[in-house]
Amino acid sequence: MKVMLITGASRGIGAATAQLAAENGFAVAVNFHRSREAAERLVVGITDRGGKAVAIRADASREEEIRHLFEETTRQLDRLDCLVNNAGILERQMRLDEMEVDRLHRVFTTNITGPFLCAREAVRRMSTKYGGYGGTIVNVSSLAAKTGAPNEYVDYAASKGALDSLTMGLAREVAAEGIRVNGVRPAFIHTDIHAQGGEPGRIERLKDSIPLKRGGTAREVAEAILWLASDKSSYSTGTFIDVTGGR
Ligand code: NAD
């Protein structure tokens, strides 16, 4: 049974990915930071349907906790085949000239330092160079990496741009060691990440700017993640799937 570790998986895109991966025969490590109850509910839902899943607490942006997360994953599920770097934060809509440096540190620590360190742990376990069987890494980026998100959150966009560079560089670095690295770039997906609010009417304007005229679902992003994580995408590395409703 292949094992997938998903960071920030207690809700939203991460939870949908855990659910879909379990339906497709993966054993799943559901990482959560604060929402133990939600993560455990998800695990029970999966195991009740005959799947295999465990919930593991860790702040996926801190080196020591990330090390613990990977050790626990392989201790409880025996191996690691796929990492989904999903945990991410988006702060309130704001221009750069109003942003404090603390915000920049929070966003970059979660959205790029965390995925970087998780990828490092994954490579140390998956690489044939270290005796591993190979594997896949999927980084959950954002369309904002390409647009820059002016007047909204250039900090977030820059962190996701950095994540895309990591995806492309690492893909080439570890391709010969059996590891494929790809990314998904969602645009507007209905999840709690938008709960921090913004200008009145922003969500309606956002939907209107999408050719398919609706926000996406977490499940629709999970489908792309699963394809990149699985052997179905065996000839793709260093590439991205935009899940944007045509935006
Ligand atoms: P969400 O807020 O529902 O989920 C994010 C999850 O990450 C939460 O469970 C949160 O607890 C977790 N998390 C945050 N910091 C963490 C940390 N340090 N350690 C462990 N977990 C942590 O939002 P979502 O939309 O499901 O977001 C998932 C990913 O998708 C994020 O990387 C986000 O940037 C990306 N994304 C979302 C959208 C969208 O419109 N929803 C668009 C583009 C990209």
TrEMBL record:
One of its GO terms (molecular function) is oxidoreductase activity. Keywords: Oxidoreductase. Gene3D superfamilies: NAD(P)-binding Rossmann-like Domain. NCBIfam families: PRK06123.1. PANTHER family: OXIDOREDUCTASE, SHORT-CHAIN DEHYDROGENASE/REDUCTASE FAMILY (AFU_ORTHOLOGUE AFUA_5G02870) (PTHR43639), SHORT-CHAIN DEHYDROGENASE_REDUCTASE FAMILY PROTEIN (PTHR43639:SF1). Belongs to the short-chain dehydrogenases/reductases (SDR) family. This is SDR family oxidoreductase. It comes from Salmonirosea aquatica.
